[in-house]
Amino acid sequence: MHKKWWKESVVYQIYPRSFMDSNGDGIGDLQGIISKLDYLKNLGVDVIWLSPVYESPNDDNGYDISDYQAIMREFGTMGDWDELLKEIHRRDMKLIMDLVVNHSSDEHKWFVEAKKSKENPYRDYYIWRKGKDGKEPNNWYSNFGGSAWQYDEQTDEYYLHLFSKKQPDLNWENPTLRNEIYEMMQWWLDKGIDGFRMDVINFISKPEEMPDGEPKPWKKYASGSKYYRNGPRIHEYLQEMNKMVLSNYDVMTVGEMPGVTPELAEIYTQEEKKELNMVFQFEHMGLDNGPNGKWDLKPLDLLDLKKNLTKWQKALEDKGWNSLYFNNHDQPRIVSRFGNDGPLRVESAKMLATLLHMMKGTPYIYQGEEIGMTNVQFDSIEDYRDIEIHQFYQEQLEEGLSVGKIMESIYAKGRDNSRTPMQWDHTENAGFTTGTPWIKVNTNYKKVNVKGAIADPNSIYHYYRKLIELRKEHEVIVYGNYDLLLENHPEIFAYKRSLNGETLVVICNFSEKEIETNVLQEVTFDSCEMLISNYQDSDKEEEGEMILLPYEARVYLVK
Ligand code: NOJ
């Protein structure tokens, strides 16, 4: 396995709208980010991934781009962006940008032109079809609800939008469109960025036919994901993009890929195929979904998580590379989801961090994760901002579900859980803004904030710093092979990592109880050192039979 800087890096994701507001308009901005770069440097991260900062009408908070080469006015100017990049590089960190090219905004000039007539040169940049029997061209639903097709009266055709109707899908079949995208990518790379996170990049190839999805009798629309995820020409497009653009730069790429399997990920990420460096898979984020998807709540079974993460660790062990994440701007906060955001918040947040950061792959930290930020529960739907939440709410109301039931799902899974403002200190609005924040601040900010976390040597923040430091000190954490221990234990997630005669043993208690175990008998124990643990009094004297405290995590280095 070849050594690469992006395999040895830790990435920090910034959701600019909620990170830091410098001008009091209640919306985070680029100058706000610049003012916090020392904070990120001190945390130890190597790479910053910036969620979209491009010009956008914000139907989906910047994931609907109307100009790929301009900065959203609310966030600042291109001059601010240039300064940001310079300041990031000056601190010896890197910057990767979000690339959203499965769709654009309907306010992008390409779409504005495309809509004008069937003969317009931009028409074919998007996916248009005739209706069938007075209805949509097929029965696919959009990922945000309703049909995936929007009727355009003027030209009597429908256009495809797998997300909101203000996010028309781009037609990758068209080589001119593909070239425009490659040129745009090159333009950013020439400005000096260090790579891309690619939004739903495995959706870009759709089959010409676009057959109906399998209908469920009680639903008006069906999923077409079987046809548009990992579609017929996906590898060809990624290889072309790599050849035309990426291969000319030393950059990192991570493709967001709902529905990707380990077998496919191996193709997407193995070096010889020349596609991407790594992908974001979603299987582990679906383990607490019921049969009807993400809003259908089901408790996590630890055995499922162990099985799943182990499958991914093993599948990409020799070929390809994993990305490691529990959080991002689309997921609820992990400490509320798989941990305990009440009395054991600190312990469980540290345990989850240990589990993830000691695995093989590139770890991603989402803003606020490093201080253990939690989910929110707003009383009124009016306080929510996310388009997905609102569409879900409306649809469920229409189907007759009670508000209480709907809110229960939103509290658990809504994307706004992770989009509340970053909690910097205990002053009003958590120090995020001097104005009125675009979305309410979590009420726990007086207790959970950066200032307090930095002052407390036992905080989650300092624990993350230590985890990142360890990754820099021990190659086994980056390159070691992975093996699961205690496969069938329902409450302990334990594994080892091995490289050149060195072994790392990672033990995580996923329960709120004390648990006795003999996990360490599974490895040879000549001499060992505890690298990190989330309780001050756990120590190696207890080797052999050990008692793990609630959510206890320990990492041993065995030489
Ligand atoms: C995935 C992004 O992470 C999400 O926030 C967005 O809504 C969709 N893709 C559509 O761009």
Number of helices: 16
Average pLDDT level:
96
Distance N to C terminus: 22 Å
- What kind of assembly state do the chains in view correspond to? single chain
Number of domains: 3
Q: Which regions have little confidence, pLDDT < 50, spanning 5+ residues?
A: none
CATH architecture designation of the largest domain? Alpha-Beta Barrel
Helix content, binned percent: 25-40%
Looking at the structure, what is the overall shape?
A: globular
Biggest sheet record? 8 strands, parallel
Fraction of residues in β-strands: 15-25%
The count of DSSP E runs of length 2 or more, i.e. the number of strands, is 22
Strand numbers in spatial order across the main sheet? 11-10-9-5-2-1-15-14
Kindly report the name of the CATH homologous superfamily of the largest domain.
Glycosidases
Q: Identify every distinct bound molecule in the structure, by name, code or SMILES.
A: 1-deoxynojirimycin
Descriptive account of the structure:
By secondary structure, the protein is an alpha/beta fold. It has helices spanning 30-35, 37-43, 78-90, 109-114, 175-190, 225-228, 234-244, 262-269, 302-315, 334-337, 345-357, 387-398, 403-413, 450-455, 460-473, 475-479; strands spanning 11-14, 47-50, 54-55, 67-71, 94-99, 128-129, 149-152, 157-160, 195-198, 252-256, 278-280, 289-290, 293-297, 323-324, 362-366, 481-485, 492-499, 502-509, 515-517, 528-533, 546-548, 553-558. The strands form 6 sheets. It has an 8-stranded parallel beta sheet with strand order 11-10-9-5-2-1-15-14, with helices on one face. Strands 16-17-18-22-20 form a 5-stranded antiparallel beta sheet. The chain starts with 10 loop residues before the first strand and ends with a strand. The mean pLDDT is 96. Bound molecules: 1-deoxynojirimycin (NOJ). 1-deoxynojirimycin (NOJ) is lined by residues 60, 63, 100, 163, 199-200, 256, 329-330.
